[in-house]
Write a structure and sequence with these properties.
By secondary structure, this protein is α+β, with helices and mostly antiparallel strands. It has three helices and 13 strands, in the order αβββββαβββββββαβ. Strand 2 and strand 3 (about 75-80) form a beta hairpin.
């Protein structure tokens, strides 16, 4: 009976979380003021609407959350990229990638890529919301898609070795805490900001989660737990003249 009750409790908590996240509305943009880059998107990106035409500079990542064992809170699935890749080799990232012409929206891009990279079947993931897009330093629009995995045991990771070296998970709440974290100040196009680095160790392995992935997870954790991080986030701020600028950056 214990395992059944625990399963029911997890399902109930995830249902409440799903309802909460479905009500999430991305912040409104004011083009007459400076805004932080993590809240900047292209004008066509309000909500999870597809662009009028295929845009090769669109991408999406899947923030796949599940309830950990022994009541240890929500956890997020992460990957370590293959060391043989030409870009970002060996770095920690969220499952995801660039949009393809057949993708109907950001959620489709994120879940398709997750299946290709780590064997996560889209049918196992309950997509509940899409956060405001981030922009990479290469001006790639990255939409964070939040999905809930109700049965973690149903997902057996099968990494595509050409892209993914390891699949692991970490506590989402970690990205709100000022523990095992350092930051470095940098400058880009006249705006000074912080790059955050989180050290994480599990089953004898050490990982560094930083840059765009860390920024997205800080934002996701803030939305899920409805509280700001316990540290200065300091994202880049730029002036948006008239039309939303594409000259924004998050490493």
């Amino acid at each position: 009976m214990g395992s059944i009750n625990n399963s029911n409790s997890i399902s109930s908590r995830l249902a409440v979380l799903a309802q909460q996240l479905r009500l999430f509305k991305p912040p409104e943009l004011d083009t007459d003021k400076e805004v932080s880059v993590s809240h900047v998107g292209f004008t066509e990106s309000s909500g999870n609407q597809p662009p009028e035409k295929f845009n090769p500079n669109r991408a999406a990542v899947l923030i796949c959350l599940f309830q950990g064992n022994n009541d240890d809170g929500l956890r997020v699935i992460l990957t370590k990229r293959s060391s043989g890749l030409s870009a970002h080799a060996g770095e920690v990232s969220l499952p995801g990638g660039k949009a393809e012409e057949d993708d109907v929206d950001d959620a489709h891009t994120a879940t398709r890529e997750a299946k290709e990279e780590i064997g996560l079947e889209p049918s196992l993931v309950n997509v509940v919301t899409v956060l405001e897009p981030f922009l990479s330093k290469h001006l790639l629009r990255v939409a964070p898609v939040i999905g809930l995995l109700s049965d973690r045991n149903a997902f057996i990771p099968t990494p595509n070795v050409a892209e993914v070296e390891e699949v692991f998970d970490a506590p989402l709440e970690m990205f709100l805490k000022d523990e095992n974290r350092i930051s470095k100040e940098t400058e880009w196009r006249g705006s000074r900001f912080l790059i955050h680095y989180f050290n994480y160790e599990t089953v004898g392995k050490k990982y560094m989660i930083w840059g765009l992935t860390a920024g997205i997870l800080i934002r996701a954790a803030s939305v899920v737990y409805q509280t700001p991080p316990a540290f200065l986030k300091q994202t880049p701020k730029i002036k948006l003249p008239g039309v939303i600028s594409r000259d924004t950056n998050l490493p």
